[in-house]
């Protein structure tokens, strides 16, 4: 039984002012595995004050110094990869292959920012002016539970690379991962106050960060509903915001696709991260003329998808993170049936043989129309919808008929055709015949999937403001 009773403010592990204890669960067994003492608004204010004190000096550090700090952070997080892996499996229930990727990713994302910084020019010319990219100030970084360690490291890396200082509010459900990352980052030996990490509730700590006048920037990953609240709260002080929110990503299977490849790819895209992925391809658009063939292959393929013990290497889908999430997914499966969608695989309840744990049966509906609830709302579990279309024009229209626009997938045996379709999809990322991630490319949503971009130079610039300096080049331009 773990007791986490410290938060990290001003370079030190301190006891929170907040007194509420929050239980941590192993979602595969439903057992309580620990308790975390939560920070409150007073802790948030202390953390913001520490970040504010650290900002003037840190914002003036040279790029080379920040690269050195980020490299130390990378090495320190990498050194804790095995501990992180254990925590991710135990506290989040990610299957081992996914958990290993996530544990590695937390360090990798720091190395990626170093690559960006090495070539990034903080000063450029625009006409006669010098344009200087200046760090915004104190950044509030708020993360969800579905990839907590990776989001903490990714957001912190970009903020610090830009010269901002930070207050991180991780998901309260991921306190073990947070503790490991915090210990690692402490070992990296950054100046006190440059980053502060305080686990607490969204409605208290998150809300204080979103409202506080000394916070210049919020970078948030989480639900669209909370993203809107943060945007409204931050408006009072005109905070800059990056919001990475939900999705209902379309997987467009074009009529020339090889189904032997398309079906496994579609299920992987839909079931990634046990279905608890904002980028999951949950609406599978299939040509009506080949629907029966696609369905038959899905039935076979889905029967082979193993949901269960995350420590079994054959498992592809682990438990949902919490009872609440499990109930939410069950409710959506019921709604799908009630609305007249046809179950091709899965359904309500736990997978066969599992009596406890927040496990869901890998579920695929067919006969779904794009106006059904299961096609419109983000379920955040392994529940996929097959939607038939008549021709490519209709497929594109259905793909774009959503309030979201985070990611889309196109599968075709004709790359040029797939690219032409990709060009017409309203989403921040379109993956053609692949599920690969590209850390150098911007990531973020169109429409209600968010505002702004993370990763690469776009992600770095999200923590800066351009400042034009005019007049200083007058003599040289006059003499030129
Ligand atoms: P959530 O929105 O409930 O919580 C996310 C974070 O916000 C948590 O740390 C929470 O404590 C905090 N929070 C809650 N209320 C707040 C408030 N009023 N003010 C400030 N902070 C507050 O989301 P979740 O349930 O943790 O995560 C699942 C959601 O995240 C899904 O909708 C998913 O699509 C989304 N998500 C998006 C991305 C992306 O990059 N676009 C990635 C992962 C998850």
Strand and helix map with partners:
Elements: E1 2-4, E2 7-9, E3 12-14, E4 21-26, E5 31-37, H1 41-58, H2 63-79, H3 81-92, H4 96-119, E6 123-126, E7 129-135, E8 138-142, H5 148-162, E9 165-169, H6 175-187, E10 195-197, H7 202-211, E11 215-221, H8 224-235, E12 240-244, E13 249-253, H9 259-271, E14 281-287, H10 291-303, H11 323-338, E15 342-345, E16 363-366, H12 373-376, E17 383-389, H13 392-400, E18 407-411, H14 415-422, E19 429-432, E20 450-451, H15 456-461, E21 464-469, H16 474-479
Parallel strand pairs: 1-5, 8-9, 8-11, 9-10, 11-12, 13-14, 13-18, 14-17, 16-17, 18-19
Antiparallel strand pairs: 2-3, 4-5, 6-7, 7-21, 12-20, 15-16
Helix pairs in contact: 1-7, 2-4, 2-6, 3-4, 3-6, 4-5, 7-8, 9-10
Short synopsis of the structure:
This protein has helices at residues 41-58, 63-79, 81-92, 96-119, 148-162, 175-187, 202-211, 224-235, 259-271, 291-303, 323-338, 373-376, 392-400, 415-422, 456-461, 474-479; strands spanning 2-4, 7-9, 12-14, 21-26, 31-37, 123-126, 129-135, 138-142, 165-169, 195-197, 215-221, 240-244, 249-253, 281-287, 342-345, 363-366, 383-389, 407-411, 429-432, 450-451, 464-469.
């Amino acid at each position: 039984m773990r007791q986490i009773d410290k938060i990290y403010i001003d370079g030190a592990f301190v006891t929170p002012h907040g007194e509420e204890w929050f239980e941590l669960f192993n979602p595969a067994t439903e057992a309580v595995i620990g308790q975390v003492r939560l920070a409150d608004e007073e802790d948030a204010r202390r953390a913001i004050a520490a970040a504010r004190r650290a900002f003037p000096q840190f914002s003036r550090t040279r790029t080379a110094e920040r690269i050195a700090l980020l490299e130390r952070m990378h090495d320190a997080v990498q050194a804790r990869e095995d501990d992180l892996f254990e925590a991710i499996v135990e506290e989040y229930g990610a299957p081992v292959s996914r958990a290993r990727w996530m544990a590695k990713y937390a360090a990798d994302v720091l190395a990626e920012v170093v690559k960006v910084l090495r070539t990034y020019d903080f000063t450029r010319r625009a006409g006669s002016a010098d344009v200087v990219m200046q760090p915004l100030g104190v950044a509030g970084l708020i993360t969800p539970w579905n990839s907590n360690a990776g989001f903490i490291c990714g957001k912190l890396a970009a903020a610090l690379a830009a010269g901002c200082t930070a207050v991180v509010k991780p998901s309260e459900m991921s306190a073990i991962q947070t503790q490991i990352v915090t210990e690692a980052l402490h070992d990296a030996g950054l100046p006190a106050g440059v980053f502060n990490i305080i686990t607490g509730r969204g409605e208290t700590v998150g809300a204080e960060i979103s409202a506080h006048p000394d916070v210049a920037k919020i970078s948030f990953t989480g639900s669209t509903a909370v993203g809107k609240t943060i945007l409204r709260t931050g408006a009072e002080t005109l905070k800059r915001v990056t919001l990475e929110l939900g999705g209902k990503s379309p997987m467009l299977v074009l009529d020339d696709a090889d189904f032997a490849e398309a079906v496994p790819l579609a299920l992987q895209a839909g079931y990634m991260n046990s279905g608890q992925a904002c980028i999951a391809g949950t609406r599978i658009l299939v040509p009506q003329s080949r629907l029966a063939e696609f369905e038959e292959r899905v039935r076979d393929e889905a029967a082979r998808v193993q949901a269960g013990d995350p420590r079994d290497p054959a498992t592809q889908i682990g438990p949902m993170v919490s009872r609440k999430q499990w109930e939410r997914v069950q409710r959506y499966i019921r709604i799908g049936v009630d609305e007249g969608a046809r179950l091709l695989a899965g359904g309500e309840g736990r997978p066969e043989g599992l009596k406890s744990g927040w496990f869901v049966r890998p579920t695929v509906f067919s006969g779904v129309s794009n106006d059904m609830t299961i096609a419109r709302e983000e379920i955040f579990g392994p529940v996929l919808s097959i939607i038939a279309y008549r021709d490519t024009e209709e497929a594109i229209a259905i793909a774009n008929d959503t309030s979201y626009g985070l990611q889309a997938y196109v599968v075709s045996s004709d790359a040029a055709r797939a690219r032409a379709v990709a060009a017409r999809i309203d989403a921040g990322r379109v993956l053609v015949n692949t599920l690969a991630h590209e850390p150098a490319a911007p990531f973020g949503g169109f429409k209600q999937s968010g505002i702004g971009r993370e990763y690469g130079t776009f992600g770095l610039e999200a923590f800066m403001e351009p400042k034009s300096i005019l007049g200083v080049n007058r003599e040289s331009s006059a003499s030129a």
